[in-house]
Amino acid sequence: MAHAEIHQDHSIDAADLAALAGRTLAVIGFGNQGAAQAANLRDSGHTPVVGNRDDEYATAASEEGFDLRSIAAAAEAADIALLLVPDEVQPDLVRSEVAPGLRAGDTLVVASGYNWHFGLLDVPDGVDVVMVAPRMIGAAVRDRYVDRHGFPCFVSVERDATGRAWETTLAVARAIGGTLGGAIVSSAREEAALDLFSEQAVWPAILDVVRTAHRVAIEAGFSEEAVLNELYLSAEPAEVFAHVARDGLFGQLGLHSRTSQYGQLRSLTALDEQGELASRFARVMHDDILSGEFAREWSRPEAGERLEALHREVAASPIAAAEAQVRARLGD
Ligand code: NDP
């Protein structure tokens, strides 16, 4: 069994935290993660500069009292730049506005591993590249810092040009609240691969289960209203998943009736764990994700148009049409 190292507030010594002393932190992008991490850095005693284009996000940063600059000026001022703009805009933005401001000895902090792992970020030589990636949406990064519950976070050193990149990583993670919940030592490769694996293996399988269950139940003569409520409109699956996180994958079974428990376990244990699903998941992990094939496809200019076409295709499917009708009847 492979286990990762975990760092929490109490296990970090003062020498590691000194990595931020006298260095200017810049938050590039004031969106979901940017606004939350900038506020957490400030409450941890730092004075981050914020870099954003001149629009409503910039207005919000100014109104909250941050030292707002253009992205290029914030990168220029930065000793440590936290790159918190959407993944798809990072390669061009880093090339045109962030990299020109970075000097040897500076640190670029990414919050997801995708662009770095797949070779899409051009970062000048001599600049450390590290990952501090919250496993949490931005609003909760802020709320859980304030209430001291914390959130899990993946951390890694991707390029250690200075020999001090690890200390910087840990100190940044601590300053945004990432060691309250536990900073798990990972890598850009692992973070990107697991994210893509959830998106391309796990969630499509779950969506397919719902779609297939809908078709079979409708063919058996049941009403759209009953079927869709049973499957997801009631939000019962969301409740079950919340209990999975709290009580365990099988620990939550105690919340269901004994009839339900017997039915679920009888069916689950009859499934072939090494069957078609396992082969499909392994294909997605190795052939699509780890090979870089998906990243190459998604980087092609025509990928955006294909995404629009795929949205149109699923919007025209029977379950989407039925859902719209049921929602309208229920006054949703
Ligand atoms: P957002 O979509 O919230 O980022 C919006 C910010 O990016 C705004 O400041 C926006 O400024 C700026 N921006 C958008 N497009 C451009 C552009 N073309 N040029 C310059 N600035 C631009 O991003 P997130 O906070 O969701 O994600 C940031 C990073 O955090 C990503 O790497 C993501 O993978 C990671 N992450 C996100 C999580 C989440 O839950 N959202 C969880 C963990 C990690 P403008 O006003 O100019 O539009």
UniProtKB/TrEMBL annotation:
Keyword match Oxidoreductase: yes
Pathway: Amino-acid biosynthesis; L-valine biosynthesis; L-valine from pyruvate: step 2/4; Amino-acid biosynthesis; L-isoleucine biosynthesis; L-isoleucine from 2-oxobutanoate: step 2/4
Similarity field: Belongs to the ketol-acid reductoisomerase family.
Alphabetized InterPro entries for the sequence: 6-PGluconate_DH-like_C_sf, KARI, KARI_C, KARI_N, NAD(P)-bd_dom_sf
PROSITE patterns: KARI_C, KARI_N
Annotated keywords: Amino-acid biosynthesis, Branched-chain amino acid biosynthesis, Magnesium, Metal-binding, Oxidoreductase
Xref: Pfam families: KARI_C (PF01450), KARI_N (PF07991)
Binding site for Mg(2+) 1: D195, E199
Sequence positions that bind Mg(2+) 2: D195
All copies of domain KARI C-terminal knotted, residue ranges: 187-332
Domain (KARI N-terminal Rossmann) ranges: 4-186
Keyword flag Metal-binding: yes
UniProt-recorded name of the protein: Ketol-acid reductoisomerase type 1
